[in-house]
Amino acid sequence: MTTSTDTAASFVNHELNPKYAYTEVLYQLRPLRNADGSVVEGLFNAWISLNNPKQYNSYTTTAVKEIILALRQASNEPSVQCVIFTAVGDKAFCTGGNTKDYAEKYSGRPDEYRRYMRLFNDMVSALMACDKPVINRVNGMRIGGGQEIGMACDFTVAADTARFGQAGPKHGSAPVGGSTDFLPLFVGWAKAVESCTLCETWTAHQALGYGLINGIAPVMKKDGEYLPNPMAYTEAWFDSWGRPMWGMAKVGSDLKAAKELMAECEIDFTLLDQETELLAWKLANTMPDCTTYTLENLRKHKLAHWDANKESNRAWLALNMMTEGRAGFRTFNFAPREERQADFIEMRRGLANGARWNDEFVKTFAPYATDAHALGGDQS
After folding, report:
1. Does domain 14-219+269-317 have CATH number 3.40.50.150?
2. What digits encode the pLDDT tens for the residues 149-186?
3. pTM
4. β-strands 155-159, 134-138: how paired?
5. Cβ atoms 160, 202 nearer than 8 A
6. Of 162, 241, 168, residue with least CA distance to 199
7. 8 A C-beta contact, residue 244 and residue 235
8. Maximal C-alpha separation, the chain
9. Residues 6+ positions from 267 with CB-CB distance below 8 Å
10. Contacts of 230 (CB under 8 A, 6+ apart)
């Protein structure tokens, strides 16, 4: 008689690097759970977690490579039902590429950054090529490239403390690693163009209302009770004109009270995990090939834009590392916290007066981005 163990042992190993040991992401097989939370024997979800919480889970070059390998491993594992793509810690899912790498390794080196962007593009494509449903479990900020890899997933379940948005035009880049392709499909043109250019973030409640994500769960706990994120009910967030953003209530003392309440709470992801695992359970209660093929066809809406633009965008992003990217990422990396953005008006004034891109020009609007400062020389 043939047992399930015998059958599994007969599978061919399709891994590209079967002995690889992950260093910057966590790859874990966790049991599939029933709707009541009980373990389903023999079936698992693959949890792929970014593991760089000190830098808000920004992905390094190594992490990008490991995500690609992890997604392929999950695709090849017969017992895996879903991929849960998430991160370690309670502050951020991902804030995009590692600005230290960008500033110190790639700025001023367009050919080198183009090679890096090949890996980034392959990571985004790998998320949309996974043979299993991919659920983005958002445990905090999903910003910049983090937003882009999150939208490449099939589903998103978020903590109600999470925030969503772009950062590129504020820091020397453009959100062409997926956001200009995907975001209009999720939220429509008006909200997409605001997010991609103004770089104003959305609360989890806004993201749910706009159709960006599938669900939210409270994660703040006080005296054993879960509380909704109090910041979502204050006017703590404003648009570029100082107007309170959608979904907020009151300002002033309420904002202070909300911050005080947050300081008294602990973060507990139990309900977020339950929502994530419940979604995986629902997906497991479908025909696997039919579900995979359905997802593959739904993904084509994103891929139609992504595949048409990814290579030209990669080339532009590489060349941008000679100008605005070089200035923006170096400023963010080397400047004091309160000076991490360039002087945009001074920069625009210089360009309007015919300035050429060199260190003398850069010094006028981003002094921390010059070669002298970046290389540890004279900062005057």
Report:
1. no
2. 999 999 999 999 999 999 999 999 999 999 999 999 99
3. 0.90
4. parallel
5. no
6. 168
7. yes
8. 83
9. 90, 161, 219, 220, 221
10. 220, 257, 258, 261, 262
CA–CA distance, 349 with 333 (Å, rounded to integer): 24
Alpha helical stretches, state H, the chain: 4-9, 61-76, 99-101, 110-129, 145-151, 168-171, 179-187, 189-198, 204-210, 253-264, 270-284, 288-320, 324-334, 344-352, 359-365, 371-374
In the block, tokens 């399930």 appear at 4
Q: How many residues does the chain have?
A: 380
User: What's the distance, CA 163 to chain centroid?
Assistant: 11
Tokens encoding 82: 């879903």
Contacts 24+ apart (CB under 8 A), 288-297: 288/81, 291/133, 292/131, 292/132, 292/133, 295/133, 295/154
Query: CB count, 10 Å around CB of 231?
Result: 20
In angstroms, the Cα distances linking 28 to 42, 48, 330, 331 are 15, 7, 35, 37
The answer to whether 141 touches 163, Cβ cutoff 8 Å, is yes
**Distance of alpha carbon 274 from alpha carbon 310, whole angstroms:** 35
Give the pLDDT confidence of 59-72 residue by residue, as tens digits: 999 999 999 999 99
Residue 214's alpha-carbon distances to 30, 151, 158, in angstroms, are: 22, 11, 8
Q: In the block, which residue shows the tokens 């693959």?
A: 46
Beta bridge partners of 192: none
Structure-block tokens of residue 28: 């874990």
Which residues contact residue 330 at a Cβ distance below 8 angstroms, ignoring those fewer than 6 apart? 103, 107, 366, 368, 369, 373, 374
Which class for 224: exposed (0-12), middle (13-18), buried (19 or more C-beta within 10 A)?
exposed
CB neighbour burial string for 164-196, b if at least 16 within 10 angstroms, e if fewer: bbbbbbbbbbbbbbbbbbbbbebbeeebbebbb
Region 300-327: what's the mean pLDDT? Answer: 97
Instruction: Provide CATH 3.90.226.10 ranges for the chain.
Output: 14-219+269-317
Tokens 């499909």, located at residue: 185
Higher per-residue pLDDT: 18 or 356: 356
Query: Sign of the CA dihedral 63, 69, 72, 76?
Result: negative
